[in-house]
Design brief:
single chain, alpha/beta, TIM Barrel, two-stranded antiparallel sheet, 10 helices, 15% strand, globular, Aldo/ket_reductase_CS, oxidoreductase
């Protein structure tokens, strides 16, 4: 994937343009640290911000966006903002209401991407109908899912009028999910990685450290570059300005085919988050 700048985008099925690289804010609490992280990311050139209702931080994200675009001299339309409907709100009317609640908290008129957060059995099809309505009504630029396995997607597609445009999943060198990735490529569903650095657990991995030394980069930069070269959108989390800048400094080098294969070979099917086939929330 010849991604060259922080503003490079992939065109989704809807025609919406989604940046390959963005900021995730999972487990960042409301408050000045969150607002400053969003503002700093925008100042550094990030154009994608990913949050979710369950994170409990949409208000701070919204404030960071408003202050960030003003300081950077850009418009709301220059940003790609994602949120997600939580499990307790899955259902047709409740999902529509949850969307409005998220918009109100964020202080925005629309979202660029709205996702079903988890594939709760017996609930996600009704929620998907609501997302389709939001999309058809022009209230959201793109719709998708998160944490869906192949069988969840196959089940959803039996009744869906519109295909999910994105599937956001746990994806890192210890969990490459090749079957799911192949299926999504076939279906035109863009994969997006959450926890790309495995919550920091991979930062001392020996093979990745060797590659970091070889390319004169950090382990995080090696992993994030690997994401892009495998065709996966990535949204690492950080609130530290130096780390935000460092994470995004991955457009001046390219991993060789051999080194990409070395990283692929690290797969252990190991998760830091729940398995979408076995969660109880």
């Amino acid at each position: 994937m010849m991604t060259r700048t922080l503003q490079d985008v992939v065109k989704l099925q809807s025609g919406a343009e989604m940046p390959w690289f963005g900021l995730g804010v999972f487990r960042v609490k409301e408050g000045p640290e969150l607002v400053n992280a969003v503002k700093t990311a925008i100042k550094l050139g990030y154009r994608s911000i990913d949050t979710a209702a369950i994170y409990g931080n949409e208000e701070g994200v919204g404030r960071g966006i408003r202050e960030g675009i003003k300081e950077a001299g850009i418009s709301r339309e220059d940003l790609f903002v994602t949120s997600k409907v939580w499990n307790t709100d899955l259902g047709y009317d409740s999902t529509l209401a949850a969307y409005d609640t998220s918009l109100n908290r964020l202080g925005l008129d629309y979202l660029d991407l709205y996702l079903i957060h988890w594939p709760v059995e017996g609930k996600y099809k009704e929620a998907w109908k609501a997302l389709e309505k939001l999309y058809k009504d022009g209230r959201v630029k793109a719709i998708g899912v998160s944490n869906f396995h192949v069988h969840h997607l196959e089940d959803l597609l039996q009744d869906a009028e519109i295909k999910p445009m994105v599937n956001q999943i746990e994806y890192h060198p210890y969990l490459t999910q090749k079957e799911l990735q192949s299926y999504c490529v076939e279906q035109g569903i863009q994969l997006e990685a959450w926890s790309p650095l495995m919550a920091g657990e991979l930062l001392e991995q020996p093979v990745l450290q060797e590659l970091a030394d070889k390319y004169n980069k950090t382990v995080a930069q090696i992993i994030l570059r690997w994401d892009l070269q495998t065709g996966v959108v990535t949204i690492p989390k950080s609130t530290n300005e130096q780390r935000l800048a460092e994470n995004a400094d991955i457009f001046d080098f390219e991993l060789s085919i051999e080194d990409m294969e070395q990283i692929e070979a690290l797969n252990r099917n190991t998760r830091v988050g729940p398995d979408p086939d076995n969660f109880d929330f």
